[in-house]
Specification:
Blueprint (H helix, E strand, L loop, with lengths): L1 H8 L6 H12 L9 H14 L8 E9 L15 H11 L3 H9 L1 E9 L10 E3 L17 H21 L1 E9 L4 H12 L15 H18 L6 H8 L2 H15 L4 E3 L2 H13 L7 E3 L1 E3 L4 H8 L5 E5 L5 H19 L3 H4 L5
Parallel strand pairs: 1-2, 1-4, 2-3, 4-5, 5-6, 7-8
The protein binds alpha-ribazole-5'-phosphate and nicotinic acid.
Alpha-ribazole-5'-phosphate binds next to helix 4, strand 4 and helix 7.
EC number: 2.4.2.21
Pathway: Nucleoside biosynthesis; alpha-ribazole biosynthesis; alpha-ribazole from 5,6-dimethylbenzimidazole: step 1/2
GO biological process, one term: cobalamin biosynthetic process
Amino acid sequence: MELLTRTLAAISPVDETLLAQAQAKLDNKTKPLGSLGTLEEVARRFAAITGNLSPQVGKKVIFTFAGDHGIVEEGVSAFPKEVTPQMVLNFLRGGAGVNVLARHSGAEVRVVDVGVDYDFDPAPGLIIKKIAKGTRNFAKGSAMTREEAVAALEVGIELAAKAKAEGVTMVGTGEMGIGNTSPSSAIIAALSRCSVREVTHRGTGINDSALEHKIKVIEAGLELNRPDPNDPLDVLTKVGGLEIAGIAGLVLGAAANRLPVVVDGFISTAGALIACEMHPCVREYLFAAHTSVEIGHQMMLERIGATPLLDLKFRLGEGTGAALAMGLIDAGLKILNEMATFAEAGVSEG
Ligand SMILES: Cc1cc2ncn([C@H]3O[C@H](COP(=O)(O)O)[C@@H](O)[C@H]3O)c2cc1C
Ligand SMILES: O=C(O)c1cccnc1
């Protein structure tokens, strides 16, 4: 808890002066004012976050947090829970979607076992920080204890701090955990007090009757646990997940360390949302990668106040959207660094 408290105390707003200086630098480039749109917003904010008006393309790491979910026993996913450790092994072999797209963008994938119900042997690229062997079924009681939720948050916080110390210049979030769209829907429903139906979708691809059942299970879980919408840690503890907590911690740690963080899809955004509800300045440090097909994603993004960079109809998670968005963010940094000014190119200003 002490690390969490210290981390929250270390988060402050992004410097407005730096934002203005970065925009002034962009405005001198050989283009009509603002004509690179969102790429300018990305470059400006990256520069201000890091306090460097010429941020170079650097080392990028995607942390894919893995955890299991007790709620799976209610039949809320199209896949069995064994897929969680099986996919972790796939990540470690480099064969999953996130591995391919991270290689494409020049990012490294690190898998973090915060809560998988399986004992992994140590392996390169695997960080074993298991807090529990999965959450408990939140339709029958609290998913976690408050201590477990804080411990998982602190795993993410420590990873962000270590990444910064190691010279990583941008981190991304990802996750793997069969059943984890259910806690993600529960989190946004609890915080926004909207109906479960409005924010619950098909995850791995459940049919209509399974979707009706999933909605009822989540409603029952919220009714039973009654998480306090004004206490994000209570929401995380009662209806969240260990990997979602790890992501929330990574996002908090990134903000505290002035490290830009790229947030992946629906489940990652649930983690980022918890972090944003814990501290109002966190949103300034994050980049939303893409719009997920999951219907509840939009409401999460609106609550955070973030506009996603891409819309590729993704519904995979793992960090796949974050991987691609990192490439786009790098493009923004190159504009800031490599594009000629009007003076350098001898081009007349308007
Ligand atoms: C083979 C496979 C690879 C995945 N990679 C990410 N997910 C995604 O699907 C899961 C969430 O959906 P639900 O709540 O319906 O279980 C998570 O593990 C998420 O990362 C996968 C799912 C499967 C089946
Ligand atoms: O948007 C996501 O991250 C997502 C959506 C469905 C299933 N798994 C992940």
